Structures are given as structure tokens and as C-alpha cells.
Amino acid sequence: MPKRIDFTRSLVLGLGGLIAFLGLWYGLSASGIVPPLFLPTPFEVLDRFIDLLDRRFAGATLPAHLAASFERFAYGFLLAAIVGIPLGLLMGWFRILDEIVSPIFDGLRFIAPIAWVPFAALWFGTGIGGPILIIFAGAFPPCVINAYRGAKFVDPRLIEAANMLGTPNRRVITEILLPASVPSIISGLRVSAGLGWQSLVGAELIVASTGVGYMMVQGQANLSTTTVMSGMIAIGLVGLALDTALRFAERLIERRRGMET
Amino acid sequence: MGVIRFDNVGRVFGSKAKPFVALKDINLEVSNKEFVAIVGPSGCGKTTCLRLVAGFDFPSSGRVLVDETEIRRPRPERAVVFQQFALFPWKTVYANIELGLRNQNVARAEREDRIRQILELMNLEPYRDHFPHQLSGGMQQRVAIARAYVLDPEVLLMDEPFGALDAQTRVVMQEELVRLARRNPRTVLFITHAVEEAVYLADRVAIMTRAPGRIKEVLDVRSIREAEKWDSYEKIEDVMDLESFVHLRTHIWRSLREEKAAAAA
What we know:
Chain A is mainly alpha-helical. Helices cover about 80% and strands about 0% of the residues of chain A. Chain B is of the alpha/beta class. Chain B is globular and about 55 Å long.
């Protein structure tokens, strides 16, 4: 059973790496090489993390901050998927749309999501619209690009088969292009979720009065590095959970299609 | 009706500076309900011929006509069976076969009826809710044939349909296709590089030259089949043993070998 050995091996190596990392961190801060205010020990951070689970800081507990962040993220991410996936598919199918949209899109997508912060603040103040705009700016491009690629690289024989069966355009898009692009779209969503979730914290650092990012800024203002690090850990864990969920969806679909490797 | 006519057809690929002549002066007529196989060395343009009739590609010169109308786009009346099956992997066997009927706005009850009949005919009933990847190659190709046949097309275009199958499955499929074609005759254009297959299945066999592809000769198999009563034999190997079959096969082999030698020269 080589598969099982591989799994045990990666588990051992992964855990080993983690322990080494925590050890180095602990060594640096506990020995005083780095002043404790600059770098708290892992145990202090863990203490603070657990503490924040039911103690309010900057107006809310850590789970409540996370929930506020996640709500914004969900809106921005869903909006990006709802607009981006159909746009990408249509660009992949209608050449004229590709030619019109691509130059604008290719220019805009190089603007870092955080660069939208001034406009987010100007247009939406500290309302929910600002963070959503910034998350959208992060999550939108991978949605479009992967749906577009999915549609562009559909096996041409499947398109020919659909045409030969007299399938109207609308149905080719919904029943051929869309399902054929699903694997590509899902991996796009994984990238999207990652970028969106990253952008979120950036957005909250500036234009929000709740959320993990806001909590971290308040932590910094109070010289509470353990709070900042607890926020970082929470962000990392939620990001990991999101990615795992989407990867699971990816596998499920591949298995259903018989593309398992 | 379903009469295919190639009228001085030429097809040139590539750029103006570096043209590649795939087809030249193709003239061929396939009558209604006739089964014509095109054989030729690989790269001779036989698949291009089929794609022109399907409406996937268009001639650079001359015309391809079905019932005296020039072909402008793919139509369900000209159903295609592809070498690599081209089934929709996310649709079940039933849904694959159903798509063409839905496109023609056939009512649900009638769709079910027609699909049930074709599934029965192709021995596919137990697999109606399977996905293509759960089926063997032979089964997948059966689904593809069912998907084409269920539309009751005037013309059936088969592009090396058994090329991707193993030898045993291939023989079974050839026997089944003969059964299907005799019972439910259609105009068939069948592309293959397997000489035995062409002789066993077709009414006429057209031999193509290497590129630029032309029709070198057209052999009448049907008159020989009927004179020698091939259809009274149930198994393909019995037919393949007949002197008349061997004679035809050898003739085609020689003709193709000349082409190969010319290509090597």
C-alpha cells in the first residue's frame, strides 16, 4: 500500500517542519534575542488566542470578528463568482466579447485589490460596500480567467457533437461549456477565495469598524502583539479551511467524471 | 432522402504562401440508403471528406451537396459518430441520447419511448443511468451510435468509429452495425483505414490516394455480396474466408500499397 506510506511520510515530515518552526520561534523570543514586545512566544499567542475566543476586544470576541469578516468575504466572493463566471464563459464562446473586454480586463487585473481602498473609503465610507469592493477586486479576475480558459479549452469534438445534435447556443453554454469548465472554474474559485480572503484583511485594516483586520489594527494601537498574531492565526486557519473545502469539491467532481488519477 | 454528392471538391489548408492541398477534384455520389466506405492511407484527407458533409468544415473549391442543397452548418439530419465517441462526460447514457431529441422539442413521453427503443436495440438498457466513463470503449461507442440513430437521421457519418476499440470488440461492433444497417438502412458515409471492415460493411468502397487526396477507384461490393450471399453467414470470420471477400480485400490492399510505395518514393 504505497499510498498509505506516502501519507504517513508527509504527515511526519509536515509535523516535523511545524515543530521545528515553532521551536525556532520560541527560541528567538524566549531567549530574548528578539524583545518579547516585538515577538511574543508561541505560548503567549496561544493563551491570547484562547482568551479572545470569549473575551471582547475592539468591540467583539474573535469569533464575532471572524463572522463579520466572513460575511463581507462571502458577499464579495459570491458577487465575483456570479459576475465573473458567466462573463468568462461568454468571453470564451463569443469572440467579439473577448475582443471588447479582454484589453480592459487585462489592464485592470494588475491593480492590486488594496489600491481600491481610497475609492472604497470615498464611495462607501466605513459601510459594508467598501470591503466588498476590495474583496471583489481580488476575487474577480481568477473567476473570469478560469471560466474563460475552461470554455476556450473544451474538447472541440464535444462542441462539434453538440452542434451536430442541433443544440442552440444558449444550451451549448449551459449544458456543454459550463459543465466542461467546472474543473477549471473550481480551481479558479480556489485562487479567488485565497486572494479575496487576503484582500479582506487589507480592506479591514483601513475601512471597517469590525472584523479580524480591524481587531488587528486595534491590537497594534494597544501594543498587543499577541492580539495581532491571534488575528493572523485565525486568518490562516479560515483560509486553510476554505481552500480545503474547495479542494474537496474539486476532487468530488473529478471523481464523478472519472478523471481520478 | 439523403443523397450526398461531392462535386469537384477541393480543400486547401495552411497559408497562401505554404498551402497544403488536402483534397483535390473529389467527385463521389452516395445514393439514398447506400453504405459507402472511404479507405485510404493516413493523412489522405478521408476524415476531411466526412467533415465537409457534417458541416464542420467547408470546401475551398467545388461543392458538397446533400439532396442537391449545399451544406452550410451541422444539422441533426446528418448525424456524426466520432472515433473518440465524443460523449458528454457529465451526462448519463440517457441524457447523452436525449439531448438531440430535446433540441428538436420532442415531447418528454415520446423522448422516453424513442430512447427506450434504441437502448433496447443497442443492448444498452442496463446502462441507461451510467456515466460514459463507467462504460467500456465498445459500450461508449454504442451510446454514440444510439445518440446518432435516435434522431432518425437521413445521413449517418462515421469517422473511424471502431478505430479506438480492441480487436474483439471491434468485430462485435461490426456485426452489430451490419445488423442495424440492414434492418434500418440509412445513407452512410464510413471512414476507415481497415480494409476488411470496409469490405464487410459497405455497399461500395472508395479508395483514396495519398495527399493531395483524390478518389482513385470505387469498388462495387454490394453486387458481389448479393451474388455470393454474404449476408447468409452470421459470423464475420465466415464471410472473411470466402474467396470473393479475399479477392476484393487483396485488390484494395494492392491499391493502397501502391500509394504507400509512392509516398515513400
